[in-house]
Amino acid sequence: MARRDNGTGTIYQRPNGGWVGRIYMGRNAEGKPKYKCFSGKNQAEVKRKIKEFNQGGCKTDSTKVSVEEYILNWLKLYKKGSIKDSSYDAIEKTVRNHIIPALGMIQLQKLTADDIQLMISDMKEKQGYSYSTVKKAYDCMRQVLDHAVMKEDIVKNPILLVKMPDKRQFPQKEIRFFNRQECLRIIEEAGRTYSNGKPVYVYADAYILMLNTGIRMGEAIGLEKQDWDREKKTLHIRRNVQSVLKRDSNGDRAGGKELSITALRHIPATG
Predict the structure, then answer these.
(1) More confident position, 131 or 50
(2) What is the C-alpha R_g of the chain?
(3) DSSP label at residue 199
(4) Closest CA to 142 of 170, 121, 163
(5) Is 99 helix (H, G, I), strand (E, B) or coil?
(6) Four-residue CA torsion sign, 140, 145, 150, 152
(7) Is 3 helix (H, G, I), strand (E, B) or coil?
(8) pLDDT score recorded for residue 81
(9) Which of 64, 127, 145, 223 has the greatest number of C-beta atoms within 10 Å?
(10) What is the mean pLDDT of residues 219-235?
(11) How close are the terminal C-alpha atoms of the chain, in Å?
(12) Is 24 within 8 Å of 17 (Cβ atoms)?
């Protein structure tokens, strides 16, 4: 059966007794996944070979590896499992929607500050993305290139010369709150019923709860009966539930979504 340790990719035993390991290396021209394989007499030997490759094996190929291959491998080996599933989905979305289309085909060692600056400028000027979206792409590239420098896959970090646009240069969206009349209308609508008395909105109580306390949807979904202290009239927010992408043992998308539950620092919401 396949086993997966942090940073080692997938390791499994062959029917003949030998062991095989593989790590994700991006996709080929046809869009199919590429893997680098390692074999050994036992699991420990395969782990050692993969560890040696991760610590320095990429140097040999770093003159040829593309930004797409490098960043996807970085995602699988160094980010998967080290951050929340929802955070991983968000980073992967940034990588696939913004970074790969702009920089993916450039060889890692030939990537320049101008290439990255052009991506940032295009996201702001031509594509009209928000400051938050542009900053996510910038921060992701910085993490990847800092990693590449530490592994000595590149000598200098080109992003050190890249300038992130000032937040004030982006259109500012005003945050508007519901006024009292709007709140009353929402409460009235939430309590609406059909002619037979059946409520129109099954989760009307949850909507009103979020409106009155300010808790988020995921926090409301994560509530359990024991979180409500009737005597003290206090609701304890202990969990957050988010919808994340289903993934296989290699971290590739498996189709569909599933719920991810994260424990939160104790936050009482007094009613």
Answers:
(1) 131
(2) 24
(3) B
(4) 163
(5) helix
(6) positive
(7) strand
(8) 79
(9) 145
(10) 92
(11) 51
(12) no
At 151, give phi and psi (nearest 5°).
-85, -5
- Contact predicate 203/211, CB 8 Å: no
Amino acid at 175: I
Q: Map residue 26 onto helix, strand or coil.
A: strand
Which amino acid makes up residue 228?
W
pLDDT tens profile 36-80:
788 888 888 888 878 777 665 444 355 679 999 999 999 988 888
**Torsion of Cα atoms, 20 then 83 then 145 then 27, to 10°:** 40
Long-range CB pairs of 69-73, under 8 A, 24+ apart, other chains included:
69/25, 69/26, 69/27, 69/34, 70/26, 70/108, 70/144, 70/148, 70/153, 71/95, 71/99, 71/100, 71/104, 71/140, 71/144, 72/24, 72/25, 72/26, 72/27, 73/23, 73/24, 73/25, 73/26
Q: What is the pTM of this model?
A: 0.64
